[in-house]
Prior knowledge:
Two copies of one chain form a homodimer. Helices cover 46% and strands 5% of the residues of chain A. Chain A is mostly helical and 153 residues long. In chain A, strand 1 and strand 2 (64-67) form a beta hairpin. In chain A, helix 1 (6-20) crosses helix 3 (39-51), helix 1 packs across helix 4 (76-84) and helix 2 (28-35) packs across helix 3. Chain A starts with 5 loop residues before the first helix and ends in a 23-residue tail after the last helix. The structure holds a DNA duplex (30 and 30 nucleotides).
Amino acid sequence: xxxxxxxxxxxxxxxxRLAAQPERRFTAAQISAETRLAAPTVSKLLKQLxxxxxxLSTRGLHGGYLLARPAGEISAAQILDALEGPVAxxxxxxxxxxxxxESTCLVSKSWQRVNFAVRRSLQEITLLELxxxxxSPASSERHTAPLIQRGSL
Amino acid sequence: xxxxxxxxxxxxxxxxRLAAQPERRFTAAQISAETRLAAPTVSKLLKQLxxxxxxLSTRGLHGGYLLARPAGEISAAQILDALEGPVAxxxxxxxxxxxxxESTCLVSKSWQRVNFAVRRSLQEITLLELxxxxxSPASSERHTAPLIQRGSL
DNA sequence: TCCATATAGTACTAAACTAGTCCTAGTTTA
DNA sequence: TAAACTAGGACTAGTTTAGTACTATATGGA
Lengths: 153, 153
């Protein structure tokens, strides 16, 4: 359940690598070597991350990639959006009319609420945490917000 | 992102139908007719739900299906487990040795924690809520637990 | 100016997964 | 024993995902 694709996982690995040395400019080949991910895949993912504004790129000789923002300002939700797009939790939600009776769509709406709540919490998780770069993870605990408020369901 | 499969969605629709009349015994054909889902699909899903103990079945003439427990005691997590199995959020987590360097696996572990936290909150959501059968949804609000405790990441 | 080294974008292929259907076996009751 | 059910598995078509290849574009140094 709640799977993320391999490519999204790879992208996180790449971003984590960039986050570890925020000032260094990495070529796709370097990242490939240092993460042991296939070079074409790394290239493809970096292009996609660039298109969504998560990394900065420089072309030409001595070109390469750089994190667009500090790792603490990149959320897990942004990474998922860049890689997987705004995919809904159920397919029925977009074209609900042709297959659903009333009770069906009620169910779909509930799943949507679950999805929305999960998204909101993913916005709270930063690349810094995903990459394991937080010095004291417990310090942010007081900012914790309930992911799913059951009353809203 | 965070998709559930069509079949899981259908299963929820079926369970919601059963939950609406907890004492009535439904045949697969009746559920198919009343939910407008294809009969073979409904059959297949009911068998799967039975195998995981979510519904009771009676064979033979006048047989059919019945919710195994009150809707309030069936969680969204149980439904997902029955339909999609204990799938991890990342594939790498199960066989991490052949493709990952140290930083890679750190990332995978973080995703696992996210997954676990999401699961825990899905355990709090009942079929009653998914089916929209709660009289006063706001009444359960005080039981709300944080889905993702950022300190645990 | 030309060439080596980068990224940008797109198109294509193979593999895996999902959804849906069908068939046969087993169970119960009239 | 026949009719009305569920149980289980196998099979197929369609879609999605992962991975690769190719061409175009940009930069900087010899």
